[in-house]
Amino acid sequence: MRIEMEKNIKAIIYTEYGPPEVLHVKELETPTPKENEIRVRVHATAINFGDLIARKFNEITPRKFSMPFLFWVPTKLTFGLKRPKKNILGSEFSGTVEKTGKNVKSFKEGDEVFGYRGINMGANVEYLVVPEKSLVSLKPVNMSLDEACSIPYGGLTALNLLRKVNVQKGQKVLINGASGGIGAFAVQLAKHYGAEVTGVCSTPRVDFVRSLGADKVIDYSKENFTTNGEKYDLIVDITRKTSYSKCKNSLTSNGRYLLASFKMRQLGQMIWTSMFSNKKVVCVLSSENIKDLKFIKELVEKGKIKMFVDKRFPMNQAAEAHRYIEEGNKKGSVIITM
After folding, report:
1. Cα separation of 88 and 302, whole Å?
2. What is the pLDDT along the chain (338 residues), one digit of tens a residue?
């Protein structure tokens, strides 16, 4: 009897922290799915903020970390003290189901899917094994695999943020950092909920943010939204390059200042404003689930959300892809094709 051996696969790995050059391609054994898992032939994976941070986590001190110290400690232990424990980056992916475990019911071979790995990462590979019940779904029918791989991280995070404050039709919403992975989805979701949306970004990204559906776009190099006299029901600060004290006068009497990342100071402000002020600081921790991923998928299929691929890199140019983003060139998503 002839037994066919599965060939090795290629993966983008890194065994030490550092600049983009630490990324390189290596052959690994092909993973075998268990009875409740699927094996995906990865078509593309998006590079997001988490990938850049994980690659150089040796430089991320508690002061530089975007969350309080108590969050930094377990994150440091998870990624590795001196060397990375997780040698394969990539939290977002899209591809085709190539093999299913015997108990899998939701997927079949040939299905085009997209998904999110979160802090587990590992998507920068040619073949990826994930549980059937994890954050993986059939991709939107009206979107390519290239586009779909960039949806989960920004889409889920933005959805969690805006749900926390229950955006209403007719409200004035400002998104600071509107061109980024989270901000681009926040603009589109706020528009979906019926808000009047202002996006803040840099000069090269003004047209991009306008194409997302923003009613107004502010180029922060030419105008300071905190001093222009405009009032907003909600300010979503993705970049955390401003502060509540600077934004307070730009909020309406019951306005909210919403943060996706925060420190102890912002947590203190949230507690204080919850008790003593009509204007509120709101700090949100994102918690992803499959229902939300499918909800985002439905919005894409209804034409409420779109994704723009700025640039594609082959896997042997992963270092160049990371460098392209770190140099501030990104307009839309940057993906690695496998």
Report:
1. 34
2. 344 446 789 999 999 999 999 999 999 999 999 999 999 999 999 999 999 999 999 999 999 998 888 899 999 999 999 999 999 999 999 999 999 999 999 999 999 999 999 999 999 999 999 999 999 999 999 999 999 999 999 999 999 999 999 999 999 999 999 998 999 999 999 999 999 999 999 999 999 999 999 999 999 999 999 999 999 999 999 988 899 999 999 999 999 999 989 999 999 999 999 999 999 999 998 888 999 999 999 999 999 999 899 999 999 999 999 999 999 878 889 999 99
Cα-Cα end-to-end distance for the chain? 33
Per-domain boundaries in the chain: 9-151+307-337, 153-283
Fold of 153-283: Rossmann fold (3.40.50)
d(CA 128, CA 253): 50
Of the candidates 103, 101, 112, 177, the residue with the CA atom closest to the CA atom of residue 149: 112
pTM of the predicted structure, to 2 decimals: 0.92
Q: Tokens 């899998």 label which residue?
A: 104
